[in-house]
Amino acid sequence: MTEKSIIIIGGGIAGLAAGCYGRMNGFRTRIYELHKKKPGGLCTAWKRQGYTINGCLHWLIGSGPGSKFHMIWRELGALEGMKIVDFEEYGRFESIADGTLIIPTDMDRFEKRLIEIAPQDRLLIREFISAVRVCMRVELPVDKAPEVMGLFDIIKMIFKNFPFLRIIRKWNKISLKEYGDRFKHPLIRKAFPELFLPDFPVTFMLMSFAWMHKKSAGYPVGGSLEFSRSIEKRYLGLGGEMHYKSRVAKILTEHGRAVGIKLDDGTEHRADYVISAADGHATIFDMLEGKYIDDRIRGYYEKLLLFPPLVYIAIGVNRTFRGLPSSAGGIAVELEEPLLVGGVEQRCLGVHIYNFDPTLAPEGKTVIVVMFQTDFEYWKKLRENDEQYKAEKEKLADTVVNLLDRRFPGLAAQVEMRDVASPTTFVRYTNNWKGSFEGWQVTPKTWSIGKVMKKTLPGLDNFYMAGQWVEPGGGLPAVALSGRHAIQIICKKERKKFTTMVP
Ligand SMILES: Cc1cc2nc3c(=O)[nH]c(=O)nc-3n(C[C@H](O)[C@H](O)[C@H](O)COP(=O)(O)OP(=O)(O)OC[C@H]3O[C@@H](n4cnc5c(N)ncnc54)[C@H](O)[C@@H]3O)c2cc1C
To answer: If you compute the radius of gyration of the chain from its CA atoms, what whole number of angstroms results?
Structure first.
C-alpha cells in the first residue's frame, strides 16, 4: 500500500512533532522550513563571540516523570542524552524599599518563608499553597486530541480532574495583578504581578509552581537549539524529510481541499494533507489569501490579546556567578526610575543568569539575558532606518550594562559580548505575527484555560493548523501536543489507530 503523504509548513516544535507522529503512523512527511539550516523556530539559539545565546527555554514542563508531558518528550526523543537542571528557585523579586522575595521551588519552604515575612497574610498564603498542592496531583488530559474524544473520554476526564476543574473555575477569573493586590504585605503585592505577565490568570502560576516542586519543569542543559535538534534527529531517524530554505508562499487548494503548497521560488509540491505549523496570521491571510475564514476566526485576529514582542538583550561576561542558586525565572530587579523601551514603560529589570548551563559560555564566563516587553510598531518603524535602528540597540545595551553593573558591581568591565534582538529580528527568523513570542495570551478577560481553538478552517478539507496560533497560551508542551493532536485527527479520518513509540 502506498503511504499517504502530509506536507508540514514550519519546522518549529509543533511542525517537528507533527512530523514525528506522522512518521510513527506511516505517513510520508515533508517539512518545509524557511530557515537556512536550523530547526526549532522560536526554540532556538545563536552564537556570538564564543557565547551561545539561548533564545527560548527557561523551563520545560515535562522535563521529569512528574508530568504526562514527559512521555511526549520521550516519544519525540527530545531529552535524549540531555542533563536536566531542576531549579532551586523559581526566581526572586528585589524591591528597592521592601526587601527581596525569594521563591524556592520547594513549596513547603515557600509557604514557611511567606508566612514568616507576612503573618498578616497567613490565610491568603495558606489558600494559595493548598491550591498549588491540588495542582501537584493533577494529570492534564494530554493523550487525546479534544477533536477525537468521545463522550466516555469526556466523562472520564471530568471525573479524574474534578479537583482541578474547581481550581480552574476559581483561579482562572483572577489575574496575577488582581491577586497581588489582595495581599497586605507590600513586597508580595508588588512581586506577584512581576513573576509572570500581570494579566495572566493565577492558574498558570499554581501549575508552574506545582510542576517545579515535582521536579518536572527543569532546564535541559545545552538549551533550546540542542533540544530542537534532538527532535529533528528523531524525525529524520523515523524517515521524515526536512527541507530548509523553503518559504511557503501559498497553500494550494482544489474544490475546497488543500492539495499542496507553492514555495516562493515558484515550485509546487503536492500531498494528501497539509498541516500549517507556521504563523497563524500568515497562514490564514497570506498563504490562503483570507478565503477560508469566518467571523469567529476573524475575531481572534482582531480582538484577542497577543503575547507582547520582546527586546532580547544578551550579555557575555567574564565572570562566574557561583553561589547564586539556579533559577527558572531569574531576578526581577525593581528600577529606581522607570525605563522606556520602545515606548513601553519598564519598572523592573528581568535578569536571567545562565550560571547553570556551562555549555553556553567558555569556562569561567557566563551568559546573562535581559528581556523587555515592547511595542512592535515602534521597532518596525525604527527598522526602516538602519543607522537609527542600530544606534537604538546600542543605547539600550549600554543602559542594560549600566543597570546590571549597579546590581553586580564590576560587571561593566567584564563584558565581552553584547547582542540585541528586537521584535523585527523575531519576525525575520520565524515570521511570527507582530513578533509575538508565544501567540495568544490567556487572560481572565480574553480566553480561559481549557477552551479549545479549532485546528481546521471553514470550507477547507484536508488542512489542519498546529502550534502556538491554535493553542492559546503557547509554550513548548502545548505546541508539541498540538502537532500530535493534528496527526490523531488525520488518523481518525483515515480510520487508522493512532500509535506512538519511544526510541
Ligand atoms: C524568549 C522566549 C522564551 C520562551 N520560553 C519558553 C519556556 O521557557 N518554556 C516554554 O514551554 N515555551 C517558551 N517559549 C515559547 C515557545 O518557544 C513557543 O511557544 C514555541 O516554540 C512555538 O512553537 P511553534 O512550533 O508553534 O512556532 P514557531 O516556533 O514559531 O515555529 C514556526 C516555524 O514555521 C516557520 N515558518 C513560518 N512561516 C513559514 C513559511 N511561510 N514557510 C516555511 N516556514 C515558515 C518558522 O521559521 C518557524 O520555524 C518561549 C519563547 C520565547 C521567544
So the answer is: 23
Ligand 1 centroid vs 13 CA: distance in angstroms?
Answer: 7
DSSP letters spanning 187-210: HHHHHHHHHS-TTSBHHHHHHHHH
pLDDT in tens, 167-185: 888 999 999 999 999 999 9
Residue 289 CB contacts under 8 Å (≥ 6 apart), including other chains: 250
Please enumerate in sequence order all residues whose Cβ is within 8 A of that of 4, keeping only pairs 6 or more positions apart, or say none. 27, 28, 272, 273, 494
pLDDT digits (tens, 9 = 90+) for 373-384: 999 999 999 999
pLDDT band at 315 (very low <50, low <70, confident <90, very high): very high
Q: What percent of the chain has pLDDT over 70?
A: 100
Q: Comparing C-alpha atoms, which of 127, 94, 168 is closest to residue 329?
A: 94
Q: For residues 489 and 375, what is the distance between their CA atoms, to the nearest angstrom? A: 37
The mean of the pLDDT values for the chain is 95
Closest CA to 13 of 52, 47, 64, 62: 62
- For ligand 1, whether the C-beta of 32 sits within 6 Å is yes
Q: Are 461 and 258 in contact (CB under 8 A)?
A: yes
- pLDDT > 80? residue 236: yes
Residues 6 or more apart whose Cβ sits within 8 Å of residue 409: none
* Mean pLDDT, rounded, for 114-129: 96
Cα-to-chain-centroid distance, residue 85: 18
Classified as helix, coil or strand, 415 is: strand
Q: What is the pLDDT, as a whole number, of residue 2?
A: 65
Q: Which helix (H) or strand (E) holds 229?
A: helix 223-237
* Residue 251 CB less than 6 A away from ligand 1: no
Place of cell 500531498: 271
Whole-angstrom distance, CA of residue 366 vs CA of residue 360? 7
Does the Cβ of 138 fall within 6 Å of ligand 1? no
Rounded to an integer, what distance in angstroms lies between the CA atom of residue 334 and that of residue 332? 6
Smallest CA-to-CA distance from 52 within 222, 198, 273, 288 is with: 222
CB distance 14 to ligand 1 below 6 Å:
yes
